[in-house]
Amino acid sequence: MNNIKTKIMKNWKFLTILAILGGLIVMSFKPIDKKVIVIDAGHGGMDSGAQYNNFAEKQIVLNISEQIKKLNKNSDLEIILLRPDDKAISLTDRAAKINAINPDLVLSLHLNKSTNVDSSGIEAFVSEKNTFYDKSKNLAESFLNKLNFKELQNNGVKTKDLHILRTSNCPAILLEIGYLSNTNDRNFITSTLGQKEIAEKILNAIKD
After folding, report:
1. Contact (Cβ atoms closer than 8 angstroms) between residue 80 and residue 37
2. Which end of the chain, N or C, is less surrounded by CB atoms within 10 Å?
3. What class does this enzyme belong to in the EC scheme (predicted)?
4. How far apart are CA 191 and CA 198, in angstroms?
5. In sequence order, what are the beta bridge partners of 47?
6. Half-sphere exposure (CA, 13 Å, Cβ side) for 97?
7. Within a 13 Å sphere around the CA of 14, how many CA atoms are in the beta-carbon half?
8. In this structure, how many other beta carbons lie within 10 angstroms of the beta carbon of residue 104?
């Protein structure tokens, strides 16, 4: 009987040690928390956004957002496309999806257009009504400093009470990447090389 008890105790101790070791091994391989960024390609579906001849804002910003995701090779950075195809999504649904994901940042991509063909450049918008206004503003300023395109002048960070910027429960930036109505801007943002450069620089800004 004593021998049986001894064996049981030894087995119990052995299993306890295995369980502890197993727990330590699992903890040592615990995944690092990822940085999650939501890219919101503006417009979609019947809503084309700004247009010039055959160029439509909705498709250009979708192309850029797809390239940002494709270019990302950082396992600690997850890029989520809010609009992965040419489908309309209401502003209410966009905000709900963003808040369900609870990302570290939402970046809404858009293009500008003006009756003044001389208007040009890249600019960022944030909302003073967003809880993360200060962080959004700081990130937007940092973004614009890193998006130093020789083709697009820096028009700075501005405040605007836009739905996505106001209702997102995280830092939120709307980025206007040039004017379709301006010849120089348009030539850059509609070109394959221009869109790739924009995607690369946005991704690098997100990584930092």
Report:
1. yes
2. N
3. hydrolase
4. 11
5. 44
6. 15
7. 6
8. 17
Tokens of 158: 């501005």
The dihedrals phi and psi of 144, each to the nearest 5 degrees, come to -65, -35
Give 135 or 22, the one with higher predicted confidence: 135
Would you call 36 helix, strand, or coil by DSSP? strand
Q: What is the mean pLDDT of residues 4-28?
A: 46
Task: Name the nearest CA neighbour of 38 among 93, 100, 104, 127.
Answer: 104
Place of tokens 């959004």: 136
pLDDT at 92: 96
Look up residue 82 and give its DSSP letter: S
Task: Determine the pLDDT at residue 3.
Answer: 53
Gap between the Cα atoms of 110 and 54, Å rounded: 17
Amino acid (one-letter) located at 9: M
> CA–CA separation, 60 vs 112, rounded Å?
12
What pTM does this model have? 0.83
Q: Which of 11-25, 130-144, 150-164 has the lowest mean pLDDT?
A: 11-25
End-to-end distance of the chain based on CA atoms, in angstroms?
A: 66
Beta-bridge partner residues of 112: 179
Residues 56, 45: Cα–Cα separation, whole Å: 11
